[in-house]
Design goal:
It is built from 22 helices and 19 strands. The chain is α/β, with parallel strands linked by helices. The protein has four domains: 291 residues, TIM Barrel (Alpha-Beta Barrel); 110 residues, Conserved carboxylase domain (Cyclin A, domain 1); 58 residues, no CATH class; 71 residues, OB fold (Dihydrolipoamide Acetyltransferase, E2P). The chain has an eight-stranded parallel beta barrel with strand order 1-2-3-4-5-6-7-8, surrounded by seven helices. It has a four-stranded antiparallel sheet with strand order 12-19-17-14, with no helix packed on it. A four-stranded antiparallel sheet has the order 16-15-13-18, with no helix packed on it. A hairpin with a 2-residue loop joins strand 15 and strand 16. It is elongated and about 115 Å long. The termini are far apart.
Length: 626
């Protein structure tokens, strides 16, 4: 029987560095790593999208398009290159008209992109269907991503006596929305619209192992296209859930290479390799080449120390092809596999945590696990409360997240809705502390979400609540016909050059105007200076060449008393010229001026010719006494 293969999407150069090091890996390190990637055999490499276009311009002063081209040039099609986009919102938060979507996807595919992973924060199919159609139409591969989220935890009810519990009014249990079938239905609809692969995308790492097994197996049964599993290790589920996904037939798994794996990133491929080897599953990757990348990736990580929260706690060095595991660690892998097959989640998680602990990967973030919110959302709430001098309200704000989610249509907690909900929970906690009615202070983004501008929420918003916040009970989606293209002014200070000099730069202005504007201005300034330097160098070269044509000046010289243009030259080298003869004529200030010999002379050199423009004091004729 043919050995089963698992295909890998490597996230190291995009999601890996974004999750761990704030997307600060510069082009120099990318270029150093790419030759080793060429022969690694990854099915897909995620190299673009997410925060890359913003961060490389904002912090590194580099071109996002050049990054994509550089990867494509080296890879030569040996791995598919993928990016992440927010469907109708692309890389930002504003819904774009079809013309912008098409222009962007067309430019991206032209520059080497193959796979566009498309997701929407609300799992609103209307927000992704046009992107799926366009990607397919333009020759790319549409990857439909279903965002994983969980139903909010309910507040515990106050303790009640026996008779109150027996005869009192019972609190209704809210209906579960995010069931396995919810995710399957979204995936099936994306496949129907033309998605060529489906990703269960778990940005917060909240898919626990048993849930991963359940959803993946159902996706495999319902879909004809390949299924990809994307998760993170933040709350401690990642490695165990990845193993469960493999056992339940996932086709593609997202991983990072050792130094960029674990923690808030996806699992390390090296650990997945050990599991697959024990399971008799072939990882369709050249692990020798992965080892080469790993060797060079360590130095790249050290260069990112300023952004590395674990810079003093690197994982233990490990080569799965050369290093022998201690017997007790090897046994942990067997224990995890046995527990996974037996659906024993507690033992599975314990074994995987012990494996990660042995290798020195970060421990699970228990706060994220218990609160069931993304780590970035939590840190944003902490920062917001600190800035407001209200850090004591953190627990209250966390407890209010379920209410805010339900009031806003039970939105998933992914970018940007996680930030919107988190900020509003903070505002709500402050409202209550002040004794104000709920939602006295609602952010513009939250109001836009409730109005309907981000799309259709998983659960319909109460019209009365919508009217309270927006003044209108009716849902109003964002009107893309009101979209105004970004301005592209001529920059007088740089010789009238346009801010965006081509289509790809214009697209950066459309997608990320706040960041692209200074980035493009810096480009134009550099180009203007380079052109000025080029002209100065040419002039210096011309003068040097001019000087080389003549002998050193030893005699007397006739110079230009004022700037002008040479009209005629009546003498040449060696001529004997009598006093009063006109030697040359030049025009200045609309008048012709004769230059006469003031005595009998012999011409040694003539430095000018008709039509030449001469500055003041420029040498024109050298002579000696006759």
């Amino acid at each position: 029987m043919e050995q089963k293969k698992l295909q890998i999407r490597d996230l190291t150069l995009r999601d890996g560095q974004q999750s761990l090091f704030a997307t600060r890996l510069d082009q120099k390190h990318i270029d150093e790593l790419l030759p080793y990637y060429e022969n690694a055999g990854f099915y897909i490499m995620e190299v673009w999208g997410g925060a890359v276009p913003d961060s490389v311009m904002r912090y590194l002063g580099e071109s996002p398009w050049e990054r994509l081209r550089s990867v494509s040039k080296v890879m030569k099609g040996k791995s598919l290159l993928s990016a992440l986009s927010r469907g109708r919102n692309l890389f930002g938060y504003v819904p774009y008209p079809d013309s912008v979507l098409k222009g962007f996807y067309e430019e991206a595919i032209k520059n080497g992109l193959n796979v566009m992973r498309i997701f929407d924060a609300l799992n609103d199919i209307d927000n992704v269907k046009e992107s799926i159609r366009l990607i397919n139409e333009l020759g790319g591969i549409a990857d439909g991503a279903v965002c994983y989220t969980v139903d909010p935890k309910e507040e515990p009810q106050p303790a009640q006596g026996f008779f109150a519990r027996l005869f009192g009014k019972k609190q209704p249990v809210p209906e579960k929305i995010f069931t396995d079938q919810y995710f399957v239905d979204k995936a099936v609809e994306m496949e129907r619209l033309g998605a060529k692969m489906i990703t269960l995308k778990d940005m917060a790492g909240l898919v626990n192992p048993l849930r991963a097994a359940s959803i993946i197996s159902k996706l495999k049964a319902a879909l004809k296209v390949p299924v990809d599993f994307h998760t993170h290790c933040t709350p401690g589920y990642g490695l165990a859930s990845a193993l469960m996904a493999i056992l339940n037939g996932v086709d593609i798994l997202d991983t990072n290479i050792w130094w960029f794996g674990g923690g808030s990133a996806a699992p390390a491929i090296e650990l997945i390799y050990i599991f697959c080897k024990k399971l008799g599953i072939e990882i369709d990757v050249n692990m020798e080449a992965v080892g080469e990348i790993r060797n060079h990736l360590e130095e790249a990580r050290r260069s990112l120390a300023a952004f590395d929260l674990q810079k003093d706690h690197f994982p233990r060095k490990f080569d799965p092809l050369a290093d022998t595991l201690p017997a007790e660690v090897d046994a942990l892998f067997d224990k995890a596999i046995k527990a996974a097959k037996e659906q024993d989640e507690e033992t599975l998680l314990d074994a995987c945590h012990s494996i990660e602990d042995y290798f020195g990967f970060p421990k699970p973030n228990l706060l994220v696990k218990e609160a069931e919110v993304p780590g970035g959302m939590y840190s944003n709430m902490v920062a917001q409360l600190k800035a407001l001098g209200a850090s004591d309200l953190l627990d209250d704000a966390m407890r209010l997240i379920p209410k805010v989610r339900r009031d806003a249509g039970l939105v998933p907690l992914v970018t940007p809705t996680s930030q919107i909900v988190g900020a509003q929970a903070v505002n709500l906690a402050i409202d209550r502390k002040k004794g104000n009615p709920d939602y006295s202070n609602a952010s513009n983004q939250f109001i836009s979400l409730v109005r309907g501008e981000y799309g259709h929420t998983p659960v319909a918003i109460d019209p009365a609540f919508r009217e309270k916040l927006t003044g209108d009970p009716v849902e109003h989606p964002y009107d893309v016909t009101k979209y105004k293209p970004a301005e592209n002014p001529a920059l007088a200070e740089y010789g009238g050059a346009k801010l965006a000099s081509n289509n790809e730069e214009q697209l950066l202005l459309e997608l990320l105007p706040t960041v692209a504007n200074p980035f493009l201005r810096n480009l134009r300034a550099a180009e203007h200076k380079a052109e000025a330097d080029r002209k100065a160098a040419e002039e210096a070269e011309r003068k040097a060449a001019e000087a080389a044509r003549f002998d050193p000046i030893v005699g007397e010289v006739v110079t230009a008393p004022i700037p002008g243009t040479i009209v005629a030259v009546n003498v040449k080298k060696g001529d004997r010229v009598s006093k009063g003869k006109v030697m040359l004529i030049y025009e200045s200030m609309k008048m012709e001026n004769d230059v006469e010999a003031e005595k009998d002379v012999i011409i040694r050199q003539v430095f000018v010719e008709p039509g030449q423009i001469v500055p003041v004091d420029a040498p024109m004729i050298e002579f000696e006494n006759a």
